[in-house]
Amino acid sequence: MKFCSQCASPLVLRIPADDSRERYICEQCGSIHYENPRNVVGSIPIYGDQVLLCRRAIEPRYGFWTLPAGFLEIGETTSAGAIRETIEEAGANVDIGPLFSLLNVVHAQQVHLFYLAQMRTPDFEAGVESLEVAMFLEKDIPWQDLAFPTVKQTLEWYFADRAAGRLDHRDSITVHTRDVLRSEKI
Amino acid sequence: MKFCSQCASPLVLRIPADDSRERYICEQCGSIHYENPRNVVGSIPIYGDQVLLCRRAIEPRYGFWTLPAGFLEIGETTSAGAIRETIEEAGANVDIGPLFSLLNVVHAQQVHLFYLAQMRTPDFEAGVESLEVAMFLEKDIPWQDLAFPTVKQTLEWYFADRAAGRLDHRDSITVHTRDVLRSEKI
Ligand SMILES: [Zn+2]
Ligand SMILES: [Zn+2]
């Protein structure tokens, strides 16, 4: 960030009054330009015993498998964003369920939120950001070819909870939370 | 947003290739300037039967009572942000607990996240953004003078869960989620 988005003047990095961190400040118009982490919202689309995954057609992690997910947009709720991404990336219509996982990815300046989701039909279709989309039984999940630690961790939590019967009552789902380290590899 | 923060050229509002929404685009350097909702992270600081609240010394809602909360910063996790805000606004040191509520406030372009928190001692002190800080029993909560719908809703959920014994086992806390409408008044 080099120039003020309001008046095009050069920005300086300085701690404003009553603040404790350096911010990009415009000394011309007085604007303070804050930067904050962004939310990535996605779903765990379920049909019977199977989970829907997408193979990425974009960087980062081109060619690796992911749950449908993307940046939360202005004007939508976190669950609406998860539904939208599931349609856009996987062509699947889901009934969105409860929040299931929240993972902080500090080094990427992101918070990842995944919702349980029921596919209404077994229909799906790769969107422009997906090379292919497929449904997987637990034993067939491509664990070595997953795109992100948050996806791997969410799938691990999902199958563990399902095996333990913890997903049987929608009103008592326990949300899983964890912080992901930069050093984590798939 | 009027000028490119990278090169100071005027921005245009246009839908990029492979996108479905208008974005602020710089035709000079090619930068796309995305805007996304921000996270507000806070805590429900508990000491015995009491909850700690802060009376706001800043707009919006100057003079009204709130749970300690503020914008998530780059470089911190959601729970670390909740701890920081509790120190900054209320001078209270807490052991942060599980995530308790997630509320979408779409019209404010915000997602609010509140964590359960245990105060280590009954000590607190108003920070620069608070006029005063005080501990309240449930019967003394200033319901008519709360700052935000998300704070009121989170406190209602907290006292309902406490009364029902649902907070006794830290490993089985159910996260509450709701979307807040623009029309909601305290
Ligand atoms: Zn300016
Ligand atoms: Zn530019």
Written account of the structure:
2 copies of one chain form a homodimer. Chain A is of the alpha+beta class and 186 residues long. Chain A folds into 2 domains: 1-35, Single Sheet (Ubiquitin Ligase Nedd4, Chain: W), CATH 2.20.70; 38-179, Nucleoside Triphosphate Pyrophosphohydrolase, CATH 3.90.79.10. The first copy, chain A, has 2 helices and 11 strands. Chain A has helices spanning 78-90, 149-163, and strands at 12-14, 23-25, 32-33, 38-47, 50-56, 65-66, 69-71, 94-105, 110-119, 130-136, 176-179. In chain A, the strands form 2 sheets. In chain A, strands 4, 5, 6, 7, 8, 9, 10 and 11 form an 8-stranded mixed β-sheet that branches. In chain A, strands 1-2-3 form a 3-stranded antiparallel β-sheet, with no helix packed on it. The longest helix of chain A has 15 residues, at 149-163. In chain A, 34% of the residues are buried. The mean pLDDT of chain A is 96. Chains A and B meet through helix 1 and strand 8 of A and helix 1 and strand 8 of B. One zinc ion is lined by residues 4, 6-7, 9, 26, 28-29, 31 of chain A. Chains A, B: One of its GO terms (molecular function) is hydrolase activity. Chains A, B: Residues 36-159 form the Nudix hydrolase domain. Chains A, B: It comes from Polynucleobacter paneuropaeus.
Q: SSE layout and pairings?
A:
Two copies of one chain form a homodimer.
Chain A: E1 12-14, E2 23-25, E3 32-33, E4 38-47, E5 50-56, E6 65-66, E7 69-71, H1 78-90, E8 94-105, E9 110-119, E10 130-136, H2 149-163, E11 176-179
Parallel strand pairs in A: 4-9, 8-11
Antiparallel strand pairs in A: 1-2, 2-3, 4-5, 4-7, 5-6, 5-10, 8-9
Bound molecules: zinc ion (ZN) (2 copies).
